[in-house]
UniProtKB/TrEMBL annotation:
Protein name: Succinate dehydrogenase assembly factor 2, mitochondrial
Subunit structure: Interacts with the flavoprotein subunit within the SDH catalytic dimer.
Region (Disordered): 28-54
Biological function: Plays an essential role in the assembly of succinate dehydrogenase (SDH), an enzyme complex (also referred to as respiratory complex II) that is a component of both the tricarboxylic acid (TCA) cycle and the mitochondrial electron transport chain, and which couples the oxidation of succinate to fumarate with the reduction of ubiquinone (coenzyme Q) to ubiquinol. Required for flavinylation (covalent attachment of FAD) of the flavoprotein subunit of the SDH catalytic dimer.
Extent of Pro residues compositional bias: 33-45
Keyword Ion transport: no
Residue ranges crossing the lipid bilayer per the database entry: none
Keywords on record: Chaperone, Mitochondrion
Stated family: Belongs to the SDHAF2 family.
Pfam families xrefs: Sdh5
Lineage: Eukaryota, Metazoa, Spiralia, Lophotrochozoa, Annelida
Length: 154
């Protein structure tokens, strides 16, 4: 095909350009479009960060992820927890926290586990979960109406 042309070059010798016919994938030939499954949408599996992620970078990422949850309840609960405890966690505890806030596909599950409304699955029933449950009890009666300052010294 010539650059800027509208069809295939003449191969019959009559000087006429003919339209180029291309095949169409079968999925476009069906009369009905595929119906999305709104009841069970596909949710991508959580892929842990590389093992090479520096400790300080991981802490910073988890502070951010603790704040940006998509639901106010967990945003307040996890951001205040991160502000109070994240710098004190060991690398192994930080891994547990990372899995806890990133592996479950529904934030309400995390909220219900932490508040004791539902049983915590064995996979997430760790020392970090116990710390988070104690934090959620708020026995010190701290006011937690807003998230802590992002740039506070954790």
């Amino acid at each position: 095909m010539e650059e800027g042309g509208l069809g295939a070059p003449d191969s019959s010798g009559d000087g006429l350009r003919r339209p180029v016919l291309r095949t169409v994938p079968r999925c476009f030939l069906t009369s009905e479009p595929p119906t999305p499954d709104f009841e069970n949408p596909p949710i991508p599996q959580y892929k842990p960060r590389t093992l090479n992620e520096p400790f300080e970078q991981k802490q910073a990422r988890l502070v951010y992820q603790s704040r940006k949850r998509g639901m106010l309840e967990n945003g307040l609960l996890l951001s205040t927890f991160a502000s109070k405890f994240l710098k004190k966690l060991t690398p192994d505890q930080l891994d547990l926290y990372d899995n806890l806030i990133n592996k479950p596909t529904n934030d309400w599950e995390i909220y219900h586990w932490v508040t004791g409304k539902t049983e915590t699955p064995v996979e997430y029933d760790t020392e970090v979960m116990n710390m988070l449950k104690e934090h959620a009890k708020n026995e010190e009666k701290e006011e937690r109406f807003v998230q802590p300052d992002l740039y506070a010294k954790y």
